[in-house]
TrEMBL record:
It comes from the Bacteria. Pathway: Metabolic intermediate biosynthesis; chorismate biosynthesis; chorismate from D-erythrose 4-phosphate and phosphoenolpyruvate: step 1/7. One of its GO terms (molecular function) is 3-deoxy-7-phosphoheptulonate synthase activity. Gene3D superfamilies: Aldolase class I. It catalyses: D-erythrose 4-phosphate + phosphoenolpyruvate + H2O = 7-phospho-2-dehydro-3-deoxy-D-arabino-heptonate + phosphate. One of its GO terms (biological process) is amino acid biosynthetic process. This is Phospho-2-dehydro-3-deoxyheptonate aldolase. Belongs to the class-I DAHP synthase family. Its EC number is 2.5.1.54. SUPFAM superfamilies: Aldolase (SSF51569). The gene is aroF. It comes from Nitrospira japonica.
Amino acid sequence: MNRPLDNQHVIEIKALPSPRAIKTKLPITDHAGALVVETREAIRRILHGADRDRLVVIVGPCSIHDPDAAYEYADRLKVTADSLRDRLLIVMRTYFEKPRTTIGWKGLINDPHLDGTCDIAVGMELARTILLEINRRGLPCATELLDPISPQYIADLISWTAIGARTTESQTHREMASGVSMPVGFKNGTEGSLQVAVNAMISARTPHHFLGINADGQTSIIKTLGNPDRHIVLRGGGGKTNYDAEHVAKAETAVAGEGIARPIMIDCSHDNSSKDHRRQALVAREVVRQFQEGRSSIMGLMLESNLFPGKQTWQQGKALAHGVSITDACLGWGETEQLLGELADAIVAKPA
């Protein structure tokens, strides 16, 4: 038999530098490590009810494609985060992996040059470099973990992570979430199903055995303890919203058995904004209104924001405008800054 039995549709298999090699080249600093530990613990305190006065806000670009724009955004957000820290715990979105419904740019790790060359080795180093720099500037980072290999390379620099709507139902991602060291938010399904996120919370709190890699890149059996720091993220679905009081109450009931004091985050984008970035502010105001009126199960919200509003279409070889999203449309910085201040002021006015 001359025909091969496997890899018939594979062009190339190329070794990636090990997590240990990349971490040795780009080591975490004491300052960044302390910030990650501090922020993870602060989020845990909010999740488990030790801190009932603040909201977590995950805010930043839908995806990062330009390091310089990301650093400029981080510098602006840092000033705002410091000024509002008694009311809002602000963590910057630093998303490097993008799940696609069909095809499209898969994110900075997959295609860092934005030219279809998919130089993942460069992308992984670039993602770690960006995380190191933003943490160095004093701003904690959040991301969506998509590829189960990626956490070995970057998870030490992440303070909060999401499992996205397309992967919440995946056993692989639930297993991964059971072992990561930061709090995890599970989004409801793309068609709006809440139960898949509830099931993910249950699965991720239990121990698992699964295949992965170790620090040297060797295929390994991973054994986890289970992750106690989980919550759901309501993002709407199937063209419908789920941020209103009725849906939040249903979500409370659905996860009541998980023993999390504040188990609900609201994604103000995606179907909750009817995929109109300008409606994110409306959603955020409603979320904070519910929190003001005593809906203490709400632990935070998510906003997609960039230096400039809207989005642009990425095409190979086409010049891109600075600070404008190439994936989902985002709020601009001016509106974001104003909105964050407004939300913080509303929390101060929260009835006793």
